[in-house]
Amino acid sequence: MKRMPWKVMATSAAVSLLLASGCSGVGEKEDKRSAEAPRLHVPVADDRFDTAGNMFAYSEFELSGEPLAEGLGLDLDTLDARKLDKPTKFDYTAGIESYEYSEEAMYEVVEKSGLGLHLIHGPIAKKRAEQQQKPADQALADRFYELADSVGYPREEIFRNMFPTFIEYAGGDPHYAQKVDTDVYAENDDGTYVPVYQVDFQSLRWDRGKMEKVLTPAAYGGVFLKQALWAGDFLGNFHQKDSDEEVEAKTPNDDRSGNVALGVSSADGLQGMILTEQIWNKLAFIRDHLFYDAKRQMLTNAAGSRYNPSGGLVYLPHAVEVAEGGSERAPDAAKLVVKDPRSLLADQWLMLWPAAEFFGMTDQRPENQNQNPAFLAVFDGSPFPKAAKENVDADRANDRTADDPYSVNRDVLLQVFRNIDAMHFNEQAGAFVTEHDGHAQGKRVDTFHAGYTMEALRIFERAIDGMPVGYASGESAKGLGTPEGKRALQMIRRQADFILKQLMRKDGLVANGYTIGQGPDQEEPTLLAQLGAIRGLTAAFLATKNEAYRDAARRVYEAMDRHFWDKTWHVYHTGEKEDEYTPWLAGALSGVFRVALQNLNNDQAGETAKALERETIISRYVDFYDRIVDGPTLAEGMQASEFWDTGDVYIKGKTLGNTDRDHVPQVQSAGGKYGIAPVLRTVKIKTGSDSN
After folding, report:
1. Alpha-carbon span 68 to 432, nearest angstrom
2. 349: number of CA atoms within 13 Å, CB side?
3. Does Signal count among this protein's keywords (predicted)?
4. Which of 3, 260, 465, 580 is 20 to 30 A removed from 199 (C-alpha atoms)?
5. Can the peptide bond before residue 385 be classed as cis, meaning omega within 30 degrees of 0?
């Protein structure tokens, strides 16, 4: 769906990129309900922002949004954010809410909130400023102008007072730290208007004093995943400069003609370029500063394709604390201190997945016959440099350290992959363990994280073997058969077999985990574990084409629906003592609905499972978003707030707060003194008499 740019007049190049220093009523009445009538309650349990959980969830929301709806036959041009539940409730929920919630949350983190270190201090940005002999802010502003020019976006329309990050913190308080500027910026003919905050991000900062200034791979990796998926979407085609219409990329040189520019549109193209610039700096910082040498017990750099774990483990540790330097306007890392040196499986797969996605964008190996010409055009030297030729040839012996996007990402990707294999895969058991202390593996296998490691490895195998990833990760293609790809497939198969042999219960559910040497967990199965197993088994089916894995995923899905679904309240219980939905659970449930609709539903002769009828899955999907994500009242639900892109427009002369009369308030009216960013929070599920 095409997104149009807002008209913005920048006061100056440097100011347009830098931050400035520095609960009301909602106006619209909710649906009238009897105070005595029993209803579902979804109160907020924790509104602190968990970067890893949110960005993971919103990645699944993105994939379960427009791409899913379009794949099921929706014409995206029929969607209108202001036409609630049209053409159908599912179409609107997927194509508008799931998709746009996902996009806006990413921008909140990487362009508005300040939840991390400023892009001015990114390694690539610093080097560019030194080479150009310019002040850092001016060099970055000029870079943004260069990126705008590459997609035909007017320089004067760049958003003002952005806070672009190059790496993000583990968490923070999503309440705004100052009054959100909802004054009129530009009026429209229908009485709606563009508020200032949508074009000038100065009033959207979070409180830096309440940020968890820790670098955790699952957190900055989760953001990386969001960035890579959206960048791939935005830069995956060309557009005509005069009409701004998307055109198919046929050759890497199409943009050299007078009327064709990079990106699917000028506005989306610019966002894709900014995201890619952030990713590039993030990866350079990770590669050169955030790997941990277990022997020397110190941070160091990655060796990439030359890395051999048998010579000493060098991996991404769980927690690195940041002592900030720089300024309040543009903070930098003055000191990095390792606070938790363990390698956690959750951290590693949430770095492997996005690095594999970005590898698919930047891959310039001559033997890859599945390259997207639009991506090749982005990385042809302008606006992003080509890959070092030694790093794309077939000779690994001549590989060298280089700073182009492909090379820095490949270094991180290969080292993370080899560490997952060496540190987390138990060869004897054939399963992934949750942690490694730098000296020895643990013995715990967590079903959820093992399942998602399989999905990350599936994307890795596709990328390293030169097959499409991103929205096209389900498409068939001939791969290159690399040694890394073969090993990834081997680990996927063995983990899938482990689930079948060691985790499956007689009732069709899977155990929450397994302790090597002891056996499977005996406590009540959780919804989260079932979701992880379904994702993992489906990944195994897609990667290997072994129907036994699809059959197993279907059995677990049926058992999950039978065991956890509440027919009265139309929600899934979680299997915990208290029904609590975290962003991790919400993201996994969204992802499982998607793979069920795409891969597990009754589409073969003899398949009659009621739970896997397409209509049943769609109804569960809609109920989940309606009851849990949006919530039953303005004060409840996971989605804290929303803005224009999901229909909550600003109307001049009308009381603001919730103009579309749904259960998600506008950002400035979402609670606290100044409102809350449009992100996910943890909620509890309470039904009937349990609601007190």
Report:
1. 30
2. 25
3. yes
4. 260
5. no
- Euclidean distance between the first and final Cα of the chain, in Å? 42
| Interval 488-525: pLDDT, tens | 999 999 999 999 999 999 999 999 999 999 999 999 99
Instruction: Pull the structure tokens for residue 185.
Output: 């910026």
d(CA 157, CA 193): 17
Per residue in 464-493, pLDDT tens? 999 999 999 988 889 999 999 999 999 999
Predicted local distance difference test score (pLDDT) of residue 29: 39
Q: The whole model's pTM is what?
A: 0.95
Is pLDDT at 17 greater than 60 in this prediction?
Answer: no
Q: Which residue has the tokens 């390698």?
A: 343
Q: Name the residue among 490, 587, 504, 480 with its Cα closest to residue 540.
A: 490
Give the whole-angstrom CA distance, residue 77 versus residue 552.
Answer: 37
Between helix 527-544 and helix 547-564 the angle, nearest 10°, is 160
Mean pLDDT of 667-685: 96
pLDDT in tens, 126-146: 999 999 999 999 999 999 999
| Nearest by Cα to 585 from 30, 10, 45, 39 | 45
Full 3-state SS string of 67-128: HHHHHCCCCHHHCCCCCCCCCCHHHHHHHHHHHHHHHHHHHHHHHHCCCEEEHHHCHHHHHH
CA distance 220 to 230: 15
Phi-psi region of 92 (alpha: psi -120 to 50; beta: other; left: phi over 0): alpha
Split at pLDDT 50, 70, 90, the class of 655 is confident
CA angle, 414 as apex, 471 and 412 as ends, to 5°?
85
Residue 236, SS3? coil
With CA atoms as reference, report the closest residue to 203 among 110, 114, 291: 114
Mean pLDDT of 626-631: 97
Among positive and negative, which fits the CA dihedral 21, 22, 27, 28?
Answer: positive
| Cα–Cα dist 540/608, whole Å | 23
Average pLDDT score, the chain: 93
Residue 49, strand partner residues: 172
Could you write out the three-class secondary structure of 560-577? HHHHHEECCCCEECCCCC
**Bond into 317 cis (ω within 30):** no
Of 287, 553, 584, nearest to 448 (Cα)? 584
pLDDT band at 394 (very low <50, low <70, confident <90, very high): confident
